[in-house]
Amino acid sequence: MVDLILLLELALFFPILVYIVINHFGGWPLAWYRFRGIPRFGHIIFTSDRKPSSHYHKQEEVHEEEKIPLFDCNAKKWAFGKEGSQVLTTRSFVRSKNEGLLK
Length: 103
Hints:
Blueprint: H1 2-24, H2 30-36, E1 40-46, E2 52-58, E3 63-65, E4 68-73, E5 76-79, E6 85-88, E7 93-96
Antiparallel strand pairs: 1-2, 3-4, 4-5, 6-7
């Protein structure tokens, strides 16, 4: 009986530990990008009811159209860069504001 309880505790320990570590490093997929060293950026979209929604993308998702760096998110195109966005210099992490939306 004691062996069964010990095995159950050990079986639950690993998934709970993984869950805690992933959430500590920013959740999915940001934690995966950090562990693997993948260049990334994030942006926050404020919905019409003023709720923030954060999205993280690989740097390779940025493509140029007519000399403007763009990326797709939520079926819309967003501008990427220093103009109209807040730049954090710690890990090449960019948060685009609503001005980045192209119609």
